[in-house]
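Is aspartic acid placement plausible here? Inputs below.
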Amino acid sequence: METKRLFKVFGLFVMALAMSITVNAQSGQRKPTVYVLATGGTIAGQGATEVAAGYKAGSITVDQLLSAVPEIKDIANIQAEQVANIGSQDMNDEVWLKLAKRINELFAANNADAIVITHGTDTQEETAYFLNLTVKYNKPVILVGSMRPSTAISADGPRNIYNAVATAVAPESVGKGVMVVMDDKILGADDLAKTNTLSVGTFQNPNYGELGIVYNGKPIYSRQPMKRHTVNSEFDVTKLDKLPRVEIILSYSNATSLFVDAAVKAHVKGIVTAGVGNGNITTDMQNALEKAVKHHKIAVVRSSRIMTGPTAQWDEVDDDKLNFSASWFNNPYRSRVLLMLALTKTTDYKEIQRMFSEY
Ligand code: ASP
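Reply from A.M.:
I modeled the complex. C-alpha cells:
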C-alpha cells in the first residue's frame, strides 16, 4: 500500500517535471525563426550628416542595420544574410532569381518560419510582385524599406523593420502572399505602388486599399489579397537562370513607333505598353505593335500610365483582332513582371490574357 502511494507521488512528480520541461522547451522554441535577407536601398543608406538630403543607398551591412533594432530579438530568432547591397534602381533578374530560390530553399528545408527582405523603395513593388508569383510556400514573406537613410534624424528604417518582423511572426500573416510593411501599413504585392518620391507613407494599394495596419507591434488585417499568389501560382523559377526580355513603352501625344521599332530590333520577347487612359496607344505605335506580333511573335500587353482602374479588354482597342492582351489591374511595372513569367511558359496570347485576368 505504502509503496503504491510512493509510486503515485513519484509518478505525479515526473509528470509535473515533464510538463514544465515541455512548457520551457516550447517557450524557448516558440520564438519563430525569421531570415532577414538584405539587398540594400535607402534603409541601408548613409548620409554625410543627420540632416543632409544626399546619401548613398546600400552602404551599411545587414548586421549594422539590424543593430539599430535589438528589440526584434525579443520576438524572433533572427538569421541575417546579405544577398546584395545595391540601390534598388539597379535591381535585376539575377537578384530576383537568387531571392526566389533562397526563399524556396529555406522554406523547403523548414529552416525559416518567415522571411523579411530589406530593399530599396524605388523598385520594391516589382520585386514584391515577382516573389508573390514565384515563392511556393504560404509562410510570410515581407519586404521592408525606408525613405530616410539610416543616418537621418527620425530614420524610418528601424521602426519599419520592427513592424515587418512583428508582422512576419504573426500567425494571421500566413497565406497572404508577399507583403510590404512600411509606415505602419501592410500592403499586398498584387496592387502595390510607390506614390510619392519623398514621403515615408509613399506605398499604397491604390485599387484595393491596404491589407491592414501594424498597431502596437501587431498586425491588424482588414482584407485578404485579391489575386492568385505564391503557392497558387503556376510559375516556377527553380531551374531558371535568366528571364525573357520584356520592355515597357510609354504612350503620349505624338508618340511614334520609334521605341517599338527599337525593341523589335533588340529581339525582345515581350512589350508592355504604358498607354494613355484605358491603355490606348497612338495609331502609329499601335500599327508597329501589330506588326511586332504578326511578324516577330512578340507578346504585347496593354497597360496604362494611369494609377488606378483596369486596362480593360475590348474597349477602344480590339485585343482579339490584334492578338494583344490587356493588363486589367496590373500597372506597367507589374505587367512586365507577369509577362516575363508568362513567357517562361507560353507565347499564346489567349493564355497570357488568362494569366492577366487571374494574377
Ligand atoms: N534609390 C533608393 C532605392 O530604391 C531609394 C529608397 O530605397 O528609398 O534603393
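Short version: Residues 33-232 form a domain with the Rossmann fold fold (CATH 3.40.50.1170).
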